[in-house]
Design goal:
Layout: H1 14-39, E1 44-48, E2 54-58, H2 65-76, H3 84-108, H4 119-204
């Protein structure tokens, strides 16, 4: 009786999963080498592990990975390999276009006395200036609002501090009054005792 099919699913145990990965990886690369040699085929195998480590195999008949990818691009009419110089050239073109746009906007926002402007050009200039003024006012209002909130917080903190000092001062005065009252009371009791004592001395004489 043959073995039943085992379900293919992710291995939950990390140690067992890593051990299985190494065994299957070695078997896969062995099959790739055998295929390249036995069938005389050009083969490129790329493999990334779960940790991001790269493993690859390139058949001996292929000079380089770049050439292999270029052949793939030509066969599929797709772009996989992009030259860094081309990317930088495209970025420089975008930056140049942005600079030209900014210079054009600056020219529109600057009035030259020696230049003859048409009415539509002046309307565009007026529109740009109004838009710039709105942005400036918005930023100004935001800055003023932040300053007002900052000063309000400082005032509230000073008020709380002042109220705390007032409470401490009032408490100190109350303690002083209580201590002063107890001192006068004890002083009057001492006078009464002294007079009573004097009276007793007079009676004895």
């Amino acid at each position: 009786m043959g073995r039943g099919r085992s379900e293919i699913k992710r291995i939950d145990n990390p140690t067992q999963r890593q051990s299985t990965f190494y065994k299957r990886r070695d078997g896969l690369f062995k099959k790739a080498r055998e295929l390249a040699v036995l069938c005389d085929v050009d083969l490129l195998l790329l493999l990334f592990s779960a940790s991001g480590k790269l493993y690859h195999y390139l058949s001996p008949t292929v000079p380089s990975v770049k050439e292999f990818v270029e052949r793939y691009e030509a066969a599929t009419h797709t772009r996989v390999w992009t030259d860094i110089r081309q990317e930088r050239r495209a970025e420089l073109e975008k930056v140049g276009q942005m600079c030209e746009l900014l210079e054009k906007e600056l020219r529109f926002m600057t009035v030259d006395d020696g230049e003859q402007y048409t009415v539509p050009a002046l309307e565009v200039l007026e529109h740009n200036l109004e838009a710039a003024m709105r942005r400036v006012r918005t930023e100004k209002d935001r800055k003023i609002g932040d300053e007002i909130n900052y000063l309000d917080n400082i005032i509230r903190a000073r008020q709380v501090e002042r109220y705390g000092l007032c409470d401490q001062l009032a408490h100190a005065h109350n303690l002083k009054d209580v201590e002063g009252g107890s001192t006068s009371l004890s002083h009057s009791l001492d006078l009464k005792l002294a007079s009573t004592s004097d009276g007793w001395q007079l009676d004895d004489g």
